[in-house]
Amino acid sequence: MRIGITCYPTYGGSGVVATELGIELAALGHEVHFISYSQPFRLSGRDDGIFYHEVPVSSYPLFEFPPYDLALASRMAEVAELYSLDLLHVHYAIPHSVSALLARQMLATRGRRLPFVTTLHGTDITLVGLDRSYLPITRHAILESDGVTSISQYLRQETITKFDIARPIQTIPNFVNCDVYMPINEDAQRNQARKRFAMAGEALLIHLSNFRLVKRVPDVIRIFAGIARQIPAQLVLIGDGPDRSAAEWLVHDLGIQCQVHFLGKQERVHELLALADLLLMPSELESFGLAALEAMACKVPSIATRVGGVPELIDDGETGLLFPVGDVNAMATAAVALLTDQPRLATMRDAARRTAQKRFCASLVVPQYVKFYEQVLEDQ
């Protein structure tokens, strides 16, 4: 198939999943065309069967806010016609579903049918889409989509309830390439690589996010501070965003600068995750928890919050530990208990990897998208 994919090309779960999906689809022999305002973050260097089309946005002085959604719709229709796309797959409902709907209508006037699939990822439904300014158009775009998927059962039910949706929504979970995200099985090799951040005998914790308010990065710092008061430990933070400055100041105020490493955005995340003992994910809300899955594939359990779709991914007590939002003391105490019980930690590490392999590997999930595309096309 020839598939057009649109996503936010930034450092966030929806963009990561969309990009990795395109890479996996291309590896299966499909032709993938990314349509966005800049090249997706994880796409660099992967161009076999993948094409990128930039969306130019007018800076005409009349526009206080450049009309990206209209420019995107025009570019979608143009790329679909020039490259004979079979369908569009848009990630994150606002504004991508609306743009795809416009593109479909534009091509319909010329006698060409262009179906589009919408994948709901989280805050497009739980936050942005519920804003009264966007709720009617979000609901309309979902209802008009030729197919709709969600990344968790939690998000599917939220969409049905909050938007009064009666149409079918298929849950296809996020996924990870288990041949890329994998543990370092040689102890000597792993110990040598860990020296970049931690000395022998120190625990290594990690956090990965876009540093937005919902990720509660200050809680990550406070949890780690509680751990570091009890055992030797180091913390690695991957990513960047609005809350980075607040996190850096909190680290400074707590006097733990020598134990916390801010790495910013990183391309080879899998190599860093494989070094860690635990991932910290104390989010206010996660519709799935992609960072935790990527860590699990690398044999790294999570200390996380019992919110949204996280319990669908993490089995509490088996592949990670779940807590109420904001309970930093309990999370720190549980992390110390786990890090000082090596047999239990090893069992949890093995279970995390096994769960990722059995339920969330790309080789299991991507064919579900292919089958979904085929069903949408058959229904046209």
List keywords for this structure.
globular; 2 domains; Rossmann fold; single chain; 7-stranded parallel β-sheet; 13 strands; alpha/beta; 43% helix; 380 residues; 6-stranded parallel β-sheet
- Side by side, the strands of the main sheet go 3-2-1-4-5-6-7
Low-pLDDT stretches are none
From the spread of the alpha carbons, the general shape counts as globular
Q: Spell out the helices and strands N to C.
A: EHEEHEHEHHEHEHEHEHEHEHEHEHHH
- Separation of the first and last Cα atoms: 15 Å
Q: What would CATH call the architecture of the largest domain? A: 3-Layer(aba) Sandwich
Number of strands: 13
Tally of distinct domains: 2
CA-based gyration radius: 21 Å
- Please name the CATH topology of the largest domain: Rossmann fold
The averaged pLDDT comes out at: 93
Broad CATH class of the largest domain: Alpha Beta
In terms of DSSP E residues, the strand content is: 15-25%
- The chain-level structural class is alpha/beta
